[in-house]
Amino acid sequence: MTLFSQIVQYTISGITSGSIYAVIGICWSLVYLITKVLNFTTGEFVMLGGMLTWGFRGTGLGLVPSVLFAITCTILISMIFERIAIRPVRFPSEMTYMMITIAAASVIKGVVLLGWGSETRTIPDFFGTEVIHVFGATMTSQILCVLGLLVIVTLGLSLFLNRTLFGKALRASAINVTGASLMGIDISRFRFFCFGLAGGLGAITGIVITPITFTGYEVGMLTGLKGLVAAIVGGWTMTGTMVAALILGLLEGFGAGFISAGLKDVFALLVMILFLIVRTLDLTLGKGRVTR
Amino acid sequence: MSGTSREKFLWLILITVIVVLPFVTGSYVVGVMSFVAIFGGLALGMGLLLEQAGMFSLAHPTWFGLGGYVSGILAVRGIAPPWLGTIFSAVFVGIISYVIGAPLLRLKGYYLACATFGLLLIVEITMGQLGTLTGGNEGLMGIPPFSIGALVLETDVHYYYLSWVLCLGCLWLLYNLMDSRMGRAIKSFSDSEVAAKSMGINVPWYKLKVFILTAVMASMIGSVYTFYLRFMEPSVLGFPLLVELVTMIIIGGGKTLYGPLLGAFVVMWLRELIHLSLGGFLPRMSAQVDALFFGVIIIVILIFMPGGLSGWTDRLLYLGRRTFGKAGE
Amino acid sequence: MRGLSKHFGGILALNQVSFSLEKGSVTSLIGPNGAGKTTFINVVTGVHTPDSGEIHFQGEDLAGMEAHLVASKGIGRTFQLVELFGSLSVLENTMVGCHTKSRASMLSCGFALPAARKEEKRIRAEAMASLMLVGLEKRAFDPISKLPLGERKLVGVARALSMEPKFLMLDEPVGGLAAHEIKNLVELIYQLVSKGLTILIVEHNMPFIMSLSEKVIVLNEGTKIAEGSPQEVRTSEKVIKAYLGEEV
Questions:
Q1: For residue range B44-102, what is the model confidence (pLDDT) as tens digits?
Q2: pTM assigned to the model
Q3: Which of C89, C111, C117 lies at the smallest CB-CB distance from B2?
Q4: Does C1-74+165-248 carry CATH code 3.40.50.300?
Q5: Any chain C CB within 8 A of the CB of B2?
């Protein structure tokens, strides 16, 4: 491959991963902004999307029904999680919630491992596996699906949050929880909703990326973490997260390509650590809003 | 050592039980109790950081693993005998924790947790990638047993005593520390940084000191672990160990110093119980699956009983105190 | 202190505040709520860095120095919201005040070396003495949660006194105190001042201030609007306007 082709190739993979991280980052923001909870099960929902789809297909269902069931199941799991593990907490504190979500992620991973083993699984590409050539680099139509997902999600969320009453109420609660509840908004219902939404979005993301990157019980943690990095660096806003995620994806793509594939995940983590350190020099905490 | 006569009595009982145990039970119990000492020692340090000092560092498994790796590598390549390697890796970890801690400890609450979590994963992945140095993902093998000169530790019982000496040593050190000027300083800045600063406590410096101290302790425990198992691999210093330690701290209760050790005892034996009873049904028993159960336990306890077990035992042990009016000597 | 200014975001909390204090004197700092009194204390003790200005203390300019260093120079304070250490008992809280006068290192504490233990005993005795000064020695081993607000404030005073400061700032020490406690505090302040301690009190309680202070300084919206004896300040028009608004 020529250098130029390589660059194009890494750019394509970078943008693909970046889009995924962007949507995942949005999932983190949805929950964080309303509840100040860092929900570590976000990554696991991404994994579940792909895993459950594979599982349902294994029972003979077609692709589309499997996808729908998988998404529904994940949303249910997310909402149930909120009900049984977040709601009843007697002495709420940020760290308590965080540890609970970390523990829950561990549980989900363990269950998947027990149920379906440790091999990686995959599902078929949505529109066939034809390879498209771009300047000497290759890509599949699935990648376009990923990009399409990002566009749809951001547009859809924007519309929802800006145009609908519910969405605006959500944004208001994100900015000022006390004020919102004084206006009669039931925060715990919103939280319930956000968990479900984040679960659904996460699942869809996982499904769309599985034909490309495969899935397995381990996949959730790192992918989810990278989404978190994008959200943190992006200041918890939608555009910020998107930009940060794309940069992150590109960094990863080029790093993996030119430096070392094995250390791919390290780049994202380093970015997070460096960013957090640099941030302490400027102490404005992430008071982002749900939309720009 | 300061402390009431009741405390000294409890120490005596503890030490006697530990010393006598191998003579009244078999190698299975000795083996499990060795792990109680090893992971309990780790949990002690992490519990101190998390609960007493209010510093949410999730990096403890990293120090444990680095200590083990460095001393293991030095021993395998014949560069340094195990006892020297242990000291050297402790110094190494001390330096690294200083370098990393200085910028990171300025982070608040869960940002510190995220950053240290990232560190945890970075080191785990990197250790797997440094094939020639660390044996890559298959792990470091051929590690010799722990030895000081001509004295070589071969049997399980040897390592049992070694790990308990280390564990109790750490406990003793931390007890003295928290009962002193420095301990007060730590508790005070976790309650109110502003007031602590106004009393002349250099908070960032103290945070760093405590961070380094617990890291060095973890490193030494990691070295003992490595020489005991004669093996070390990247997954050891990863997420499942973190979940395990957190479970120990939460079960045992972090408000007291010894809580995590109690938690370690419970967790280790609980794990044996799970393996024995469910091993027939479940196809693979691994650290990941353990983490599943620990996860459930964590959630349940955090929801209903955040004080952990030592919340109760403390009240039992020190029942008489208030009525007699004196809390100290 | 000369020309002390401090911004908070868009708000000018302190605007060129200047005045000087004499050793062994009692000065009061008063002003309506939000006038910047606590900000002033925070800036002087190093909790906040001033945007401009100097703080001259015993020949040194302390402006911008870090809080723990300022404390070691001999400047102590109490807090409006008390800020006691919940995990420590009353005595232990007071012992924290002795931190700057002790030097046991981490290792000597950890290994319980004799030097550290001896120092510990000394600190304990000194803290007890501070508690006796404020009359709380009977509560020494109680947890903070058991104390009412008034007594908590006194613990804060004892804690600051353990530092053996040369300059002490009390931030609203009297609110929540019973009448006899206030009387004791007044006597304590006279005692301390006679030993050469310089005291600055931020308060709202007028009788307390007027009876005790040699000088009164008035802040309003970050600016010093009056300085003088209690009498002068009480009758100053500017001060009355600041407290009561334009109409009197």
A1: 999 999 888 888 899 999 999 999 999 998 888 888 888 888 999 999 999 999 999 98
A2: 0.86
A3: C117
A4: yes
A5: yes
